[in-house]
Amino acid sequence: MSNVDELEIDKFSQLAHKWWDKDSEFKPLHEINPLRLDYIDRHASLAGKKVLDVGCGGGILAESMALKGAQVTGIDLAKKSLKVAQLHSLESGVPIDYRCVPVEELAAEMPASFDVVTCMEMLEHVPDPQSVVRACATLVKPGGWVFFSTLNRNAKAYMLAVVGAEYVLNMLPRGTHEYARFIKPSELGRMARHAGLGLHSLSGMGYNPLTRIYALNDDTDVNYLMATRRSAE
């Protein structure tokens, strides 16, 4: 059974041409990118590392990690988004290896091949997030890092991430998120442990709508980042 929701793929494909427009629907991703890049780099020291970005979209995070000196592969199943990523890579001169392949298939092809694996804002868009977490764990080398970011599932997250962001502030297109697919940190932590990943740190991501500034904090009620690590064998 394929771990793909075609409606989710179509949703992002329709917006693919806007990935690098910092005033478009992808503005929030551009605004949080320095925060998540710093979080990853502080833990894993990206320079010289072989990195996989799962669900890379138009390549915002992938390019920024490459600029830190990493050798980056980006995978996604939205072909239009990948084409945008490839074109931007050519324009910017930042080399990225982009592939249209399911993460589970790549895990079977290239186990224990990457020093760092990132999976940002992707788990809440697939039917079986546990399958993705397991594949990420398979792809990372022993001792390597796997980073996840997603949305918590509670009333506060619904009000801020769905009602607030999509319907009040119009920060995201309506229908971007399906609340039932949000994942509690305890659930993601359990998925990671079952996949052989140890939880290293958990941080919330807060947004101030007045200053339009994102910052890491201890509040994981809405958006959160999780750093996990595969044990050295």
UniProtKB/TrEMBL annotation:
Gene3D superfamilies: Vaccinia Virus protein VP39. InterPro entries: SAM-dependent_MTases_sf, UbiG_MeTrfase. GO terms for molecular function: 2-polyprenyl-6-hydroxyphenol methylase activity; 3-demethylubiquinol 3-O-methyltransferase activity; polyprenyldihydroxybenzoate methyltransferase activity. S-adenosyl-L-methionine binds at residues 36, 55, 76, 120. GO terms for biological process: methylation. Pathway: Cofactor biosynthesis; ubiquinone biosynthesis. Its EC number is 2.1.1.222, 2.1.1.64. It catalyses: a 3-demethylubiquinol + S-adenosyl-L-methionine = a ubiquinol + S-adenosyl-L-homocysteine + H(+); a 3-(all-trans-polyprenyl)benzene-1,2-diol + S-adenosyl-L-methionine = a 2-methoxy-6-(all-trans-polyprenyl)phenol + S-adenosyl-L-homocysteine + H(+). Keywords: Methyltransferase, S-adenosyl-L-methionine, Transferase, Ubiquinone, Ubiquinone biosynthesis. It is an enzyme of class 2 (transferase). Belongs to the methyltransferase superfamily. UbiG/COQ3 family. O-methyltransferase that catalyzes the 2 O-methylation steps in the ubiquinone biosynthetic pathway. This is Ubiquinone biosynthesis O-methyltransferase. It comes from Chromobacterium amazonense.
